[in-house]
Amino acid sequence: MEQQYLSIQKISELTGISTYTLRYYEKNGLIHPITRAAGGRRQYSAGDLEWIRFLLRLRTTGMSIRQMQQAAHLRRQGPSTAKERRQLLEAHLESIKKQIEALQEHQDAIEDKIVVYKQWEEDYPLKEESK
């Protein structure tokens, strides 16, 4: 069965990132050089789409471009880099957990302040202005 290829526009639609960003990712080693059709148009595979979606997940969780480049570099080297890739992701996961913990503390503080303000509203109701 012949592999189906996707255009850069279709990848952009499916991922929500611009064609400019896709070209940037390719130029900066986040994705491997994309296969080209006879006319020079990029042809993305299903595997390319899956990798781009993974990169977006990493970026959304705060991974730096440099770390993403490192992950891409290790990926291109094949399965022998599994340990290094795992360690990279474990370090990132720890960073995410710390961010979540900090956000939880911020959420708790805001919720506490809301309770205080609700109590103030009950204790000090607004007086209607006299006409």
From TrEMBL:
CDD domains membership: HTH_YyaN
Domain (HTH merR-type) spans: 5-74
* SUPFAM superfamilies the UniProt entry points to: Putative DNA-binding domain (SSF46955)
Coiled-coil intervals, chain numbering:
86-113
Q: What GO MF annotations does this protein's record show?
A: DNA binding; DNA-binding transcription factor activity
Tell me one Pfam family matched here. Answer: MerR_1
Q: Keyword set for this entry? A: Coiled coil, DNA-binding
Q: Which PANTHER family match?
A: HTH-TYPE TRANSCRIPTIONAL REGULATOR ADHR (PTHR30204:SF98), REDOX-CYCLING DRUG-SENSING TRANSCRIPTIONAL ACTIVATOR SOXR (PTHR30204)
According to UniProt, the name of this protein is MerR family transcriptional regulator
| Species annotation | Paenibacillus zeisoli
